[in-house]
Specification:
single chain, 119 residues, 5 helices
Amino acid sequence: MKWINKNIKMISFVWFLIQGVLLLLNEIRCFIECKNAFTLEVFVISICLIVVSFLLFIKNKKIIVFLGIVLLLYSIVALFFLTLLFLIASPSSYWLGLFLLIPILSIILSVKLVWHYVW
C-alpha cells in the first residue's frame, strides 16, 4: 500500500494517458474507416485526457486535487455511458460487462488521488 501511495501520480498519469491515447487511436480508426463519421466530442475528450494526465506532474496540490476531481467526473460519465451500452447490448453478449471494470478502476484511482492530496 505504501508503494501505491508513493507512486499515485505516476500510476494515474500512465492509466489516464493510456485511456486518452486509446480513445484517440479509436477515433482515428473510425475516421479512416468511415470518412464522414468524425465525432469532435470524442476527439476533444481524448486530447483533454492526454493533457490532464501530463498536468498531473505539476507540484501544486490544489491543481492536482482539481485534476483528480475532473478525472473522477470523467470516470463517472464513462461508467454511465458504458452501463447504458451494456444494458442495450446485454442480450447478445455478456462479456461486454467486463468493460465496466475500466471506469470502476478509474473511479477508484481518481478517489485515491484526491484522497492522497487532500489528507
